[in-house]
Specification:
The complex is a heterodimer of chains A (123) and B (107). Chain A is mainly β and 123 residues long. Helices cover 0% and strands 56% of the residues of chain A. Chain A has strands spanning 3-7, 10-12, 18-25, 34-39, 45-51, 58-60, 68-73, 78-83, 92-103, 106-113, 117-121. The radius of gyration of chain A is 14 Å and the shape is globular. Chain B has 107 residues and is mostly beta strands. In chain B, strand 7 and strand 8 (70-75) form a beta hairpin. The chains are: A mainly beta (123), B mainly beta (107).
């Protein structure tokens, strides 16, 4: 069965960096695009970034562009989110998610999600 | 960025009721929309993809419709386990955007 397990969250001071990881299993990781989505506690969902199956294409929300970097290691079935210059408004639970399917170079829907890892940016 | 406007933001309904949630896109997104259910403390769960296709394992009381800019999630015969917050998500273009959510409370 598909499993996505995030790790790396914690408390970090403003301006510092943090790297989140997502360990994938139960599917051919190297065949699927992957996404990060975040959620401020008690608030709605915000799409953060995604990466194509082979890592060549990456897209970011404007709110994180230039500060966050998504990457993957298909040999380890792992997804990463490098977060730099963290701000208080980056405080959220961060979820990794697997797309449902891709067609004609586009991918659709977030079929499987991890349990999330909480990032708290505070001095 | 495409804005997704969801309504209502919350609703209260009785078991057995029919519930309708709408999502409006700020521009046409063909049928590139999904619906997600999130229960407190849990990750979101995909219910409907490409606007009207039922995800495997999801009860048939959930259905989706719409195309272009206006979309609807319908829950027929609401069950106690349907207490949750529901979100739409457009994957027509980047950045992907969620609606603000609809909290469904059971009367």
């Amino acid at each position: 069965q598909v499993q996505l397990v995030e790790s790396g969250g914690g408390v970090v001071q403003p301006g510092r960096s943090l790297r989140l990881s997502c360990a994938a299993s139960g599917f051919t990781f190297s065949s699927y695009a992957m996404h990060w989505v975040r959620q401020v506690p008690g608030k709605g969902l915000e799409w953060v970034a995604d990466i194509s199956y082979d890592g060549t294409n990456k897209y970011y929300a404007d709110s994180v562009k230039g500060r966050f970097t998504i990457s993957r290691d298909n040999s380890k079935s792992k997804l990463y989110l490098e977060m730099n210059s963290l701000r208080a408004d980056d405080t959220a639970a961060y979820y990794c998610a697997k797309v449902k399917y891709c067609s004609s170079s586009r991918c659709y829907e977030l079929e499987y999600w991890g349990q999330g890892t909480l990032v708290t940016v505070s001095s | 960025a495409i804005q997704m406007t969801q309504s209502p933001s919350s609703l209260s309904a009785s078991v057995g009721d029919r519930v309708t949630i709408t999502c409006r896109a700020s521009q046409g997104i063909t049928n590139d929309l999904g619906w997600y259910q999130q229960k407190p403390g849990k990750a979101p769960k995909l219910l409907i993809y490409t606007a009207s296709s039922l995800q495997s394992g999801v009860p048939s009381r959930f259905s989706g419709s719409g195309s272009g800019t206006d979309f609807t999630l319908t829950i027929n015969s609401l069950q106690p386990e349907d207490f949750a917050t529901y979100y739409c998500l457009q994957d027509y273009n980047y950045p992907w955007t969620f609606g603000q959510g609809t909290k469904v409370e059971i009367k």
